[in-house]
Amino acid sequence: MYSVGEMAKLSGVSTRTLRYYDEIGLLCPSFVAESGYRYYGLEEVKKLQQILFYREREVPLKTIVQLMGNGANAKTALYEHLDALKQKQMRLSAIIATLEETLKAEEEGNAMPDEKRFEGFKQQLVKENEAKYGKEARSRYGDAAVDAANEKILNMDEAAFDDFKTLEDAIRTALNEAVAAGIAPESEAGERIAKLHTRWLKMTWKVYNREMHLGLADGYLADERFIAYYDKDVPGCTRFLRDALHHWL
User: Fold this and answer.
1) What H or E segment, with its residue span, contains residue 148?
2) Residue 177 half-sphere exposure, CB side, CA atoms within 13 Å?
3) Contact at 8 Å (CB) between 199 and 247?
4) pTM for this one?
5) Where are any strands of DSSP class E within the chain?
6) Per residue in 64-87, pLDDT tens?
């Protein structure tokens, strides 16, 4: 058993934070003595580790509360954390490589081609998508379609790639605002989001198909990885997106 102070020393999490986690029902002590002292056991140690993994992935506390409260399999969650952190590691490695190449060009007085400045970002995006969703995407749409989508991303110039990432951020922002405001997917906001998502997909799909788009939307709602992505800041965004696409496409 660990007291609050001992748990803080063990984990590196402040006692104030541990008490706050208790207040919001995220991590409650296993035993509270008559004196009021809180004590944590092995299960709480494991839960705190899970919480810290989620925090490392920048998952909001209110989302963690929901995830931890759903009774998700701990082993499955650990594999998800490992996969997410590996993706983060690869992303950082690609960015570091691009930065080193940029610095080398600056120090040697050489002109670095503009497309090289974004090559690492685009390659990493393709690698992440392939690692996360490649198997399912290839099974559903075929190798040719996935390879063509990857090629379109890699061949984007600076302006197109910037537009692609800006659209992605705009969709996330619009979803967060609509769900937080309690707006219905059948609203004008839902229509705008559906149009933004369609435009975003067309930037990578060689041939756009409405049925494939709706199938993708259904897949979002059936896959915890997509739910974690779209619901990261405001729970319910994945379902809103799916419903908006089914109504407006």
Assistant:
1) helix 143-154
2) 12
3) no
4) 0.49
5) 2-3, 31-32, 38-40
6) 887 777 655 666 777 777 777 777
